[in-house]
Amino acid sequence: MKHLIFRTLLLLTLLFTFSGCASMIYTSNYDSYITEQVKAYTYPSEDLPILWRNAMALISRQGFHPREFDRYRAETEWSNQGSYDRKYYIVSYTTRSNGCHVEFTYTDETHAQPGVTPARTDARDYAMEFELMRIMNANDWSKIKADADAYARAKASN
Length: 158
Description:
Blueprint: H1 2-40, E1 43-44, H2 48-61, E2 66-70, E3 73-76, E4 79-80, E5 84-94, E6 99-110, E7 120-124, H3 126-136, H4 138-157
Antiparallel strand pairs: 1-6, 2-3, 3-5, 4-5, 5-6, 6-7
Helix pairs in contact: 1-3, 1-4, 2-3, 3-4
């Protein structure tokens, strides 16, 4: 009886361990596929004014208050996110291939004790850019999601 319980527990442990690994591999591959697609994605240059308006509306819906520097550059005020504050920089530009793009970059600053320098992290927010793509072009967004799923499943099964 002890051997049966031990074997069952061992089997369950291995099952949960490997299914967790497969899930992490899937998620990692899914996210990297989407990130690469977002980096390469461009909108037609004539869409720049509506793209910018949608970017400003999206960041506002996320609870940030953008201030525009000039026509297609903005930053938000710091927003408390619990253990850190976050600020966004948003910039739009045209590409050499007659397209345009919007980038969301954030800065996180941890809350530090008095006398301790807070840690800062800067990163591009591909998830925010992907959400903007959903708003601007739901067909491309859906196709990228489906392709990411197929890519991640194939990689996870290898």
